[in-house]
């Protein structure tokens, strides 16, 4: 009994080191690649928005299921995993922000939805998974996020001087009740993982995903595990980008850089190594042809047509939004799982703002392409957001990996140096 209590204390009563979150997320990103269901957040959130706004935007059209669209299902499972983790750790409380914090959450969430749509993903799908996919847009997304976070931080600090930092209040929930509910929900979740064999399609042509069928239970497994890891490590990309400038602390930046390094290295292995030949997962064997190099279908996975325009501009807008909202996509999710109403508001407006912007953008994209036809002809782009660029195709696998690792290591070293010198801390 003492051993069980000690294990429980280590797992749920103590915060895990941030580097565990970074390394775990890097590995899981690549594992989900192999499974045929790459991790993404934005598509699922926009599907939620499409369903809410359907009577206004799509009254005569069908929209994807808010539950069974594969990224939406992963999102639900992530929320569930974070909620269970918070309950078992006694971390759940209903956090009610001030009205001005509500507004910042709504505005920040709206910007996140707009930015993520332009970039074909958020800090996960366009940035972390972009590195794992060896997509050039992952690098431009990183640059946009950095500039946007710095801009958003300056705006946030200015708002604080105008009285926008009014603290809210929290409604505490008895810890014993939290633990009991957490255990019940964990048992239910394990049951869903084992028993829910409904097939879910990962079809998403814009992200290079074919119509692979995976079980809903497997998606719940990945989502719940990621939710637990993120909540226990308090992993958040907004902290990784913001803290060097805000407090000088570099711990989360180093963890995020580790995630990028692991994802890029193992992403290269998945896309080019003959090791993929020995994998015989029935759900995805149609995309794992036995060749010395990965077949085109797996190379194309998560290479979005957003280089360099959509990822740079979208990353900038998303960076501002996540700073005001107080959480990136996954950061907002696990904080919502802890009971933060501000982050729940941010997710809601992420969905609504992104869905509405997507509807309007599709109306004006032809005019953008026509107005700047010369630029798009030089780029060879048919999308206003840019082109697909699998960096190994342009530079070779070795040099592509060197560039991705150089950006991640430079970020890590900058955070460490700035932590000592406070040179760029506001």
Structure notes:
This protein has 426 residues and is mainly alpha-helical. It has one domain (17-419). 68% of the residues lie in helices and 3% in strands. The chain has a two-stranded antiparallel sheet with strand order 1-2. Strands 3-4 form a two-stranded antiparallel ribbon. The longest helix has 31 residues, at 341-371. It is globular and about 65 Å long. Residues 277-296 have low confidence and may be disordered. This is Sulphur transport domain-containing protein. It is found in: Cell inner membrane. Pfam families: Sulf_transp (PF04143). It is a multi-pass membrane protein.
- Ranges with pLDDT <50 over ≥5 residues? 277-296
* Proportion of strand residues: under 5%
Write down the secondary-structure element order: HHHHEHHHEHEEHHHHHHHHHH
Give the number of DSSP strands. 4
Helix content: 55-70%
Any idea how many domains? 1
Distance between the termini: 49 Å
- Order of strands, widest sheet: 1-2
Q: How would you briefly describe this protein structure?
A:
Belongs to the TsuA/YedE (TC 9.B.102) family. With 426 residues, the protein is mainly alpha-helical.
Question: Any key phrases for this structure?
Answer:
transmembrane; two-stranded antiparallel ribbon; 4 strands; mainly alpha; cell membrane; membrane; 18 helices; 426 residues; transmembrane helix
